[in-house]
Design goal:
Order of helices and strands: HHHHHHHHHHHHH
CATH architecture: Up-down Bundle
CATH class: Mainly Alpha
Helix content: over 70%
CATH superfamily: NCX, central ion-binding region
Distance between the termini: 30 Å
Oligomer: single chain
Largest sheet: none
Radius of gyration: 19 Å
Number of domains: 1
Strand content: under 5%
Number of helices: 13
Length: about 350
């Protein structure tokens, strides 16, 4: 039964991601937002809900030690997954859809959007990593760093909102219009868009939670430790919306939306989630496992950013290379170095 629920929830996440992508593109058009804002803010925050709720729920639950392990593991696992495996999946999508793409396997992104996201991510996540080595008796310093992380995301949002380039206008029909052109041209179409968006988000969150619960049940039978479960299995499930959304956008040759969805979610999870973790846990990252997990994510993102700065564009080769960092992470886990 749990295995069946695993597959059903996976299919529901895929369907919800398609609904979400369609609605968020229309919302961006109606609000006259830039493509970068649509991908890095609307899509990123929306699809980040599952991985945001899971560590918060874990940290506010009963068992303090296990909850802290799950919370910190989930917080560190999300940026790690996005900066490595999700980038790799996006690169695979570029190659997989190259025959239907005008630019084939060339990644065509807005340099300013993606480089800005990566720059903010590296700063915020590195700051969160440094905070993990501050002694517990200096709690006030940790609280200040948490406030800086919240502030960095606020500044990040302001920079995005100042963009004035509108998102693309050649959009597919809104699914909840059911092919009715009058609805799509009506002045209250934004209400239909918001209904579709909220229903898609609700389906994403509930399906991702079901996926995680089923994974948890199966992994418990296998005797997987709480931290390993949180840093490997939970992000795989909760990052599915970002993966699916990016694959859909890559297939439509909207590379800035695809990459902005990932890098925007990375920034959200490198600032807001660590800030919450710092406030709700002892946020100690002195063990080799937690430190290496965060370091791998930062190194992968830094190399991606350096290539972007040097070449002024992103290559599919670099996206695929990010997958090697996730492979390294898995090797360290199974070798017992990350535990």
């Amino acid at each position: 039964m749990e295995i069946l629920l695993l597959f059903i929830s996976l299919i529901l996440i895929l369907l919800a991601a398609e609904l979400f992508v369609n609605a968020v593109e229309w919302l961006g058009k109606l609000l006259k937002l830039s493509e970068g804002a649509v991908g890095s803010v609307l899509a990123a925050i929306g699809t980040a809900l599952p991985e945001t709720l899971i560590p918060i729920i874990a940290l506010l639950s009963g068992n303090e030690k296990e909850a802290s392990e799950i919370g910190i593991g989930a917080i560190l696992g999300a940026p790690l997954m996005l900066s490595t495996l999700t980038m790799f999946v996006t690169g695979c999508a570029v190659i997989g859809f190259k025959n239907r793409r005008k630019h084939k396997d060339k990644v065509v992104v807005n340099y300013n959007v993606v480089s800005r996201d990566l720059r903010f991510f590296i700063f915020a996540f590195a700051l969160a990593l440094v905070c993990g080595f501050i002694p517990e008796d200096l709690k006030n310093i940790k609280v200040v760093i948490a406030c800086i992380l919240f502030l960095s995301y606020f500044i990040y949002i302001i920079k995005i909102v100042k963009e004035n380039e509108e998102s693309e206008s050649d959009l597919p029909k809104l699914y909840f219009s059911f092919g009715n052109e009058k609805i799509m041209n009506h002045k209250y179409v934004i209400i239909i868009v918001l209904i579709q968006l909220l229903l898609a988000l609700a389906l994403i969150v509930t399906s991702a939670q079901t996926f995680v619960d089923s994974l948890t049940y199966v992994s418990t039978l296998l005797g997987v430790p709480a931290f390993v479960l949180a840093i490997i299995l939970t992000p795989i499930a909760t990052e599915l919306p970002e993966k699916f959304n990016s694959v859909i956008w890559i297939s439509r040759e909207k590379d800035t939306l695809a990459l902005g969805n990932i890098t925007g979610a990375m920034m959200f999870q490198a600032s807001i989630l660590p800030a919450i973790g710092i406030l709700l846990t002892d946020w100690s990252l002195t063990s080799s496992g937690t430190f290496l997990s965060a370091l791998i994510a930062i190194v992968s993102a830094t190399l991606l950013y350096c290539e972007l700065r040097a070449k002024k564009h992103m290559t599919v080769k670099m996206l695929l290379t990010c997958g090697l960092f996730y492979l390294l992470f898995l090797i360290l886990v199974f070798a017992g170095i990350i535990r």
